[in-house]
Amino acid sequence: MKILLPFSLGLILAVPAAVQAQPAFTAPPPSTVVVQDADVRREHYFNRIDEAITWRTSLVKVDQPATMDMAAIAAKLVRHEDIAACSARVIELMKEPGTGPFWMFPVVCVAYTGRDLLSPEAQAAIRRAWRTTMQLRGDTENHWAMYYASLYLMADLYPDEPAETWYTGKSSAENLAEARDYLIHWMDLMTTVGQGEFNPTGYITEYAIPMLYLSTWARDPAMRQRGHMTLDWLFADLAANTLHGVLRGPNARTTETPVMERWNDHASFYSWLLFGNTPSPVSYGGFGLYFAVAAKNYQVPEVIYRIAVDREGDYVQRDLKRSRRRWRYSDLLLAPIYKTSYMRRDYAVGSFQGGR
């Protein structure tokens, strides 16, 4: 399942051109000169975050509730704008809850950004949806990362509640423990054996968003630190495998569009937001807006920034990744993937062995 735009094309076309302007998409490409001053880098980073949030809030017409999806509500909440309208829209959306990770993490985002702002009725509607509607876990690495991070944070937000108040039939403590166990297992696996969905053009957002939420909102300092360190790990990998902000070399998963237009997917949004060295894709990557609303709680370390932008010459990079689980015709459950990339000033090539 892959959705780049969290609202309809008709909505975008209905908004005046001046309102829907996206400077990072329509302006000339940004400078690739290294920004030496840390305070200036942070200022530029915050400006890019604000640009994305401003664009999304500009699409909202309060008298047209259909213009307010969960991304718009979260953007409005972080700006402390139209709180009554946000509450009313949440109540309406929670009348027909969705299911699965792609419904869960946007609701987590709104639940946390609105926990001190939404009306009691809106907060109760969110809580009720997590009791009445069974959530599908999904079947891929990114699905499970989103699912368990979302379950962890909702159980963290509503601790000490009994099993009958959750769709899982487990208590808050049991949900928290199950989610914690999986997340720690996955983090340990990806940083030792390797990530199965490595260097994805689009799926990076489905790891970055839940890890940002953990690093921002988890009560447990250790889990916040794990979320933060996993973000560093993901973005260091992105930085090393991009050329002027565009992901290059071999990768595990992609979708149809970036096969031909490598720049046109979520990876470029994160390069734009974090490193400022490439244009953002249209609509700021769509799902990227869910990262932007909490992004001021995270900034890449200088060393990762410099890996992305401070290049002095050609280099060869060799990485160890892993395959997906092999259930048939293999003696190994998780086979190693040996990945090689050769990065030059103007182009990059790479490969990994077959048999995924």
Structure in words:
This protein has 356 residues and is mainly alpha-helical. It has one domain (38-313). The protein contains 15 helices and 5 strands. It has helices spanning 9-14, 23-26, 38-58, 70-78, 83-93, 101-113, 120-132, 141-157, 172-190, 205-217, 221-240, 256-260, 266-275, 288-292, 302-309, and strands spanning 242-243, 246-247, 315-322, 336-343, 348-352. Strands 3-4-5 form a 3-stranded antiparallel sheet, with no helix packed on it. It has a two-stranded antiparallel ribbon with strand order 1-2. A hairpin with a 2-residue loop joins strand 1 and strand 2 (246-247). Helix 6 (101-113) runs parallel beside helix 8 (141-157) and helix 10 (205-217) packs antiparallel against helix 11 (221-240). The longest helix has 21 residues, at 38-58.
Distance between the termini: 21 Å
Q: What is the average per-residue confidence, as pLDDT, rounded to a whole number?
A: 91
Shape: globular
> Segments where pLDDT lies below 50 for 5+ residues?
1-19
As an assembly, this protein is single chain
How would you characterize the largest beta sheet? 3 strands, antiparallel
Quick rundown:
By secondary structure, this protein is mainly α. Helices cover 49% and strands 7% of the residues.
List its salient traits.
356 residues; 15 helices; disordered N terminus; mainly alpha; 3-stranded antiparallel β-sheet
Question: What's the arrangement of secondary structure elements?
Answer:
Elements: H1 9-14, H2 23-26, H3 38-58, H4 70-78, H5 83-93, H6 101-113, H7 120-132, H8 141-157, H9 172-190, H10 205-217, H11 221-240, E1 242-243, E2 246-247, H12 256-260, H13 266-275, H14 288-292, H15 302-309, E3 315-322, E4 336-343, E5 348-352
Antiparallel strand pairs: 1-2, 3-4, 4-5
Helix pairs in contact: 3-4, 4-5, 4-6, 5-7, 6-8, 8-9, 8-10, 10-11, 11-15
